[in-house]
Amino acid sequence: MFQPNWWFFVAIVGHVKRLEDDVIELKERDVRLSKENEVLRKQNAVIMEQLSLVMTDIRTLKQEHENLKRQMRTFKKTSIFNKSNGNMSLPFDAFDKRQLTETPVHRVAFLAALTREVSLGYHQQVEFDKIITNEGRAYSSSDGHFIAPYRGLYLLSTTLFNTEGHTLPMEIVRNGIQLAAMFLDNDDYNMASQTVLVVLQQGDRLWVRRFRDSGSANLDATPTQLYNTFSGVLLYEM
């Protein structure tokens, strides 16, 4: 009958210890592999997203290519070829005639604001004293007038803010004739605005003024609180 001795038990214990170490190492390796797999999964998601963007760009480029091909076919149909030298010229009607002129483009735009409280009398204009933008130098802060330097379509706007307890009937006028009106009640601090889209002749004057006598009429403003503004821009000449 086999009688295990002390060395046998020592060998068994050593073998079990090695097996336990192998199991621990395998678990740690499994954890590392799981982490690496998660990183790879995220990288794959990023790559797939980038690939999707690339495919979208390719589709867009293909569409643009097709559009260019259609434009070229149209171009050839409306063109006249010189067979002697292979050059191409367009008939005059294929151009927008306005593009053949070399009329300079004039830029006109302004924005001005009020920096102090003012009390307005009947038909007194608002002199927006802080000029923020004045491309074309068509606005004057000395009298609050904008003078159209060119005939064209203009967009003009004003925003006004009254002092509490003051009633202000206000208007935008062209050469003294009302284009738009607004009313600020005296029950509280109130704000009103108007915007006009109008064809102006060269030399037309526009300004903002009080148009009816209704008692005290103050606009509220400070240098750091630019509630009241007057602005305009030339959209295109005519």
TrEMBL record:
User: This protein is called what?
Assistant: C1q domain-containing protein
What lineage is on file? Eukaryota, Metazoa, Spiralia, Lophotrochozoa, Mollusca
> Where's it found, cell-wise?
Secreted
Q: Main subcellular localization, coarse class?
A: secreted
- The residue stretches assigned to a coiled coil in this entry are 16-78
Domain C1q, residue spans: 103-238
Q: Which GO terms describe its cellular component?
A: extracellular region
Q: Does the keyword Signal apply?
A: yes
Q: Which keywords fit this entry according to its UniProt record?
A: Coiled coil, Secreted, Signal
InterPro entries assigned to the protein according to its UniProt record, in alphabetical order: C1q_dom, Cerebellin_Synaptic_Org, Tumour_necrosis_fac-like_dom
> Does the keyword Secreted feature in the UniProt annotation?
yes
